[in-house]
Amino acid sequence: MKKKTNWSILIGAAFLMASSAIGPGFLTQTAVFTEQLGASFGFVILLSVVLDAIAQLNIWRIIAVADKPAQDIANQVFPGLGYFLSFLVFLGGLAFNIGNIAGAGLGMNVLFGISTGQGAMISAVIAIGIFVYKEAGKAMDLFAKTMGLLKIGLALFIAYISDPPLAEAAARSINPTQFSFSAVLIIVGGTVGGYITFSGAHRLLDARQTGIDNLRSVNKGALSAIGLASIMRILLFIAALGVVSTGAKLDPGNPAASVFQLASGQLGYKIFGLVIWAAGISSVVGSAYTSISFIKSFHPKILKYNRLITIIFILVSCAIFLLIGKPVKILLAVGAINGLILPIALGVMLLAAYRYKIVSTYKQPLWLTLAGAGVVVIMVYMGYGTILNILQ
Question: Can you tell me which residues the record assigns to a coiled coil (predicted)?
């Protein structure tokens, strides 16, 4: 029997994934690589969009058909593999959440002049409030949509104000003069790496929007999520390009803030505060939800106290940030780590697509499998190259 598609949940899942991707690290990465590669960064973005879409479609479809969370699927592929995958995703989610809390705190600092630590604590309380609310799923969907639209709207304004060289950006997006493997790895990792690609799929799972009959809707949700994240990436790219093309130098301590401030003065700086707060707080929600979703099927008590454990996860992230200070330097590194997790996660899902006990009679399109395998190979190759550069 075909399950009725709940479009509100589907769009909420897309926004949850996109909002999880568009965190403080996302803003930092985009500003840094625009300054490094100039208009040629447009090519990296286009390449990453293709890789992102292939990875997302494979993972969302297989989770929807199997009607199980990724860690249970992985354990069926090979006993114990789900625990390993959960360990990687959970640690990656925790590391990202420290940066997300920091970003939200920085946003509060810019907007209201309070300390970053105080802003982080207030933001953590707001995020916790969403999970305390009885209708947490609906609240999370609404929050993700609102924050997603806010970020895109503000980025569009700054992109317009910065007067970017659009013709050059379009030309170099097809015919680049510079390229960086590590940029692709970090950008893909920051968009669909680690916990991020599973956030929307696990939300659909919790809302029972699964099964072969719902695959068309799942496809739309997966591609919508990538589309939303990509729109934001492109807007930030052209905003940053408009700034750096004038010869202006970004502040290495906070390159994303420089883009907004140089484009629109004090108003731009305040807008940056609002954007990075929205990016941080929505990513805190997405990261906490998805990271806990990777362990809640392992024991009945984890499932029973799922909401409480999610709240503790947020509090621990906030406490670590308050103890170690600003983790701005790790945001690029965490993107790379999540990029290294992606080929493992995607490879497991591709194997699962051909296990009858997992997907029953479902037949994964051959082109999607081959494209997914290609993404695994590309990400492994780029990850290997990036690690060699770090070690040299």
Answer: none
C-alpha 265, offset from chain centre: 29
Q: How confident is the prediction along the chain (392 residues), in pLDDT tens digits per residue? A: 455 566 777 777 777 777 777 778 788 888 989 999 999 999 999 999 999 999 999 999 999 999 999 999 999 999 999 999 888 888 878 877 888 888 888 889 888 989 888 999 999 998 888 777 756 667 767 777 787 788 888 888 888 988 899 999 999 999 999 998 888 888 887 777 777 878 888 888 877 778 888 898 889 888 988 988 888 889 889 999 999 998 888 888 778 888 888 888 888 889 888 888 888 888 888 788 888 888 877 778 887 888 888 899 999 989 988 887 654 555 555 556 666 788 888 999 999 999 999 988 899 999 999 999 999 998 888 877 766 665 55
Tell me how far CA of residue 280 lies from CA of 24, 29, 151, 243, 353, in angstroms.
6, 14, 11, 23, 34
Residue with tokens 């292939």: 54
Comparing CA positions, the residue from 77, 89, 84, 80 lying closest to residue 359 is 77
Q: Looking up tokens 């659009």, which residue turns up?
A: 166
Amino acid at 143: F
Say how far apart CA 287 and CA 294 lie, in whole Å: 11
- Please give the structure tokens belonging to residue 350: 């591709």
Domain 7-391: CATH architecture, name and number where available: Orthogonal Bundle (1.10)
- On the 0-12 / 13-18 / 19+ scale of CB atoms within 10 A, 118 is middle
Burial of 362 (0-12, 13-18, 19+ CB in 10 A): middle
- Measured distance CA(281)–CA(102) in Å, rounded: 10
pTM: 0.84
Enumerate the domain spans of the chain.
Answer: 7-391
